[in-house]
Amino acid sequence: MALNTIAVMSPGNMGSAVGDFLGRNGYDVVTCLAGRSDYTRKLAARCNMRDVGSLTALVAEAELILSILDPGKAVMVAKEFAAVIKDSDRKPAYADCNATSPATAAEMNGILEAAGGVFIDIGIIGGAPTEKSSPMFCTSGPHAALMDGMDGRGVKILDVGPDIGQGSAIKICNGAWNKGAFALYTAVMMAAEHYGFTKHLQPRLPGSQAGTVDKIHQAITRLPSLSGRYIGEMEQIAQTFESIGLPAGFHAASAELFRMLNATKLANERREEIDADRTPEDVLKIITETLEAGKPAAAE
């Protein structure tokens, strides 16, 4: 199957950037903005993504659909596309690029196959594409080769195996370390902030965790704004670990930690709105104040 028109759902920060670079590399990039926010519409316009108005039109035009969105919505969106594909003469390949467990990828594969569609399992490693770097799309499944021609055209393509779930597993393990480490460090520092010794603990950590702590410490400034998206990813990681006999509790707890962050006022900020002068210490203070304010009053 020759790929000329690629659909991106949805054009958020990652999706719009992927669409932008695919467009620069010769693909006709389309999306559907029905019901989307003004912010998403601006991102799509900025990245020259063509709005076709409906999922039906998207299926009619595209040879490949890239699902890049909150992993908590991945199955729902796969079902929506399966319903359209089932009633269409066209059967574009559907690639799930979200942080979902291998079991969730298998579920979506079944949904698309039942509709007569083709499913590709993808784990994205790396951030949004830039002039200097491209994310790695780790593809898997019997139809993964359909995307080989995209390699070097805004993204890198690495076929990691013939089975659905292999691409998802790479992303799950990568996220389990990176975002799981963010969650653990944030929880430790929230406890330190609660007891009033953050300034004493913080200088001690780099000695035992050279390099790692500095990276994670700086990540705290943007973590609340990303927390809503990370909840679903941590849940998918916990599901994956449990399914192969590994302890799932830490990443389930990480999901709960991200729910706490998502309840703060900082969670409503977009990345470009984050105060560049705000320190990680400022963020920890806001988080702990939010938690304290939400606690029930002590009994008399």
Descriptive terms for the model:
N-(1-d-carboxylethyl)-l-norvaline Dehydrogenase, domain 2, 8 strands, eight-stranded mixed beta sheet, alpha/beta, 300 residues, Rossmann fold
Characterization of the model:
With 300 residues, the protein is α/β, with parallel strands linked by helices. The protein folds into 2 domains: 5-162, 3-Layer(aba) Sandwich (Rossmann fold); 169-294, N-(1-d-carboxylethyl)-l-norvaline Dehydrogenase, domain 2. Helices cover 50% and strands 13% of the residues. It has helices spanning 13-24, 38-46, 55-61, 74-86, 102-114, 166-195, 198-201, 205-208, 212-219, 223-243, 249-262, 280-294; strands at 5-9, 28-31, 50-51, 64-67, 93-96, 118-125, 136-140, 156-161. β4, α4 (74-86) and β5 form a beta-alpha-beta unit. α6 packs across α10. The mean pLDDT is 91.
